[in-house]
Amino acid sequence: MNTVDLTADDAALPEGRFSGRTEFADLIRLAFQAAASQGWREIIICDASFEDWPLGERMVTSALTDWSRTGRKLTMMAKSYDALTRRHPRFVTWRQTWSHIVECRSIASGPTENLPSAMWTTSWVFERLDMARSVGYCGHEPSRRVALQESLNERVLKSVPAFAATTLGL
């Protein structure tokens, strides 16, 4: 995969290998733009902390707002949401507004290394296979989508609710 074109009209998501933090971040931006323009109903994202995802960028939260319609669902899974809260305040605000369609889960047990860094949708997926170099694969292949969906669904079953949209004080 070469440099990703981030035009709003670009409905074609890349396929194949990606490498490096810049390509990884561009891939996430493009995916959320595609989610808005193509009307994806369900998205599952998973990462140990989402620390290096560009979730707090105006472009991403704007695309997520455009995506947020009736019947949509975003499931997030992480080991911890602490880094996301510190590094992405714009996303935290977006999450509070759209808490009725965002389900955040925590993987409380097991090593972080086993937690994939991935995005799943019914039509396209990506998974970062080498966290240190941000190397992974993205594509539309049904077999890859089914395998990732099964892996993520298994983790959802073992997870607990986390990252509340609001905190209640006494």
- Per DSSP, the total helix count is 5
Which shape, going by the Cα principal axes? globular
* Poorly predicted ranges: 1-10
Please bin the fraction of helical residues: 25-40%
| N to C succession of SSEs | EHEHEHHEEEEHE
Total beta-strand segments: 8
Sheet of most strands? 8 strands, mixed
Biggest sheet: strand arrangement: 1-7-6-5-2-3-4-8
Radius of gyration: 15 Å
What structural class should be given to the helix and strand makeup? alpha+beta
Tell me what portion of residues adopts beta-strand conformation. 15-25%
> How far is the N terminus from the C terminus?
52 Å
Quote the average pLDDT.
Answer: 90
Question: Would you mind describing this structure in some detail?
Answer:
The chain is an alpha+beta fold. It contains 5 helices and 8 strands. The chain has an 8-stranded mixed beta sheet, with helices on both faces. A hairpin with a 4-residue loop joins strand 6 and strand 7. Helix 1 runs parallel beside helix 2. The N and C termini lie far apart (52 Å). The N terminus is likely disordered.
